[in-house]
Design a protein that fits this description.
The complex is a heterodimer of chains A (159) and B (191). Chain A has 159 residues and is mainly α. Chain A is built from seven helices and no strands. Chain B is mainly α.
Chain lengths: 159, 191
């Protein structure tokens, strides 16, 4: 759905661009292609890694770990799982919901969800390539710590 | 030969997958099918992202980006960065090339940090899923807290980078960039 929108937008803009200036549109597409092919190897590597990690660490294992865990120990565990895996939202939230129903705490689930989205262990090499080691360490580090702040507040607010 | 080196890491992982397929066929098949699904997901939106990037690169004047997202863009720039990130769809790694293009066009690093934070935490499509499965209280509290957190983290991060390091970040984008002959991004971050 979302990608359809992106393509519709790209298509319309491409047509507008072509109508305005053929030469410039060619330059634009050339740029698109060059940027894409420059970064493709890294994307493929990340996808391969994600495939490996996701399978070796299956959903059932995550459920067992988080479902039985509690307190700080559970939160730290949840944060590690969240940081190490890359699960799309449409899988992660139903999973989080089922964990919650299975008896996991709000804070553990909040840490899991927040680190899942903001902390990326497998994408770190790619991020380093774009923005350097310092940015990667800081952004992921701060996001990691912030996940605990969010979790503690949520633990109080949501009952 | 050059291509083999560039794709070295991806090829290595593929070899691991194949080895796994031989040793543990069931696990190997699962790995390959998950990888293939991810590949499909990427193939679905990445070409559109890069098409839009190319168009933006040629049509949006650098001056406009500097005015809206540059060092002097202030609260408007931060709000725009949050909006851009929240309106996004797709995994975090798709944000990297977009953030890179923003830097190339003269956006400030603070705004790019805000954009990356918003992309990872505030995506509206993602929040819809969260809302429906986790409930409004959970989703909205997390969303509001994250807006605050993103701004705090971005400004702390900005302070931890000195002038040379900021320059390095901008320099990096030239290597990732689509067009090497573009005028050099001269950056003088004030403050």
């Amino acid at each position: 759905m979302e990608s359809l929108l992106a393509y519709a937008l790209a298509g319309v803009l491409l047509l507008v661009s072509y109508g305005k200036d053929k030469q410039r549109t060619k330059v634009a597409m050339d740029k698109s292609y060059k940027a894409f092919s420059a970064i493709l190897p890294d994307f493929l590597a990340v996808l391969g890694l994600v495939g490996l990690v996701l399978t070796i660490m299956p959903a059932e294992a995550i459920t067992t770990l988080l479902g039985q865990a509690s307190g700080w120990f559970g939160m730290v565990l949840a944060s590690l799982v969240g940081s190490l895996t890359l699960i799309p939202g449409f899988i992660a939230f139903p999973l989080a919901k089922s964990l919650l129903d299975a008896g996991a705490g709000i804070s553990q689930i909040a840490v899991f969800v927040t680190t899942l989205m903001a902390v990326g262990f497998v994408t770190a090499p790619l991020e380093t390539k774009f923005f350097g080691r310092k940015e990667t360490l800081l952004r992921n580090g701060f996001s990691y710590v912030w996940a605990f702040v969010v979790a503690l507040v949520l633990g109080v607010v949501v009952r | 030969m050059k291509a083999v080196r560039r794709y070295g890491f991806a090829i290595l992982i593929l070899l691991i997958d194949v080895a796994l397929l031989a040793a543990k066929p069931e696990l190997g098949q699962r790995v390959l099918s998950v990888t293939f699904q991810n590949l499909l997901q990427m193939a679905q939106f990445l070409p559109a992202v890069f098409l839009l990037l190319g168009l933006m690169d040629t049509w949006v004047p650098r001056q406009t980006v500097i005015a809206m997202l540059g060092n002097r863009s202030g609260a408007f720039g931060a709000a725009l960065s949050i909006t851009l990130g929240a309106a996004a769809a797709g995994p975090l790694y798709a944000a990297f090339p977009i953030a890179s293009a923003m830097l190339m066009k003269g956006a400030s690093v603070f705004n790019v940090f805000v954009f990356l934070g918003a992309w990872s935490n505030l995506k509206i499509p993602m929040s819809m899923f969260e809302l429906s499965s986790m409930g409004a209280k959970f989703a909205l509290t997390r969303w509001a807290l994250n807006v605050l957190g993103i701004l705090i983290i971005a400004s702390v991060m900005r302070r931890l980078f000195n002038k040379e390091e900021i320059g390095e970040i901008y320099d990096r984008q030239k290597h990732m960039a689509s067009s090497p002959k573009q005028p050099e991004v001269k950056t003088v971050e004030s403050r």
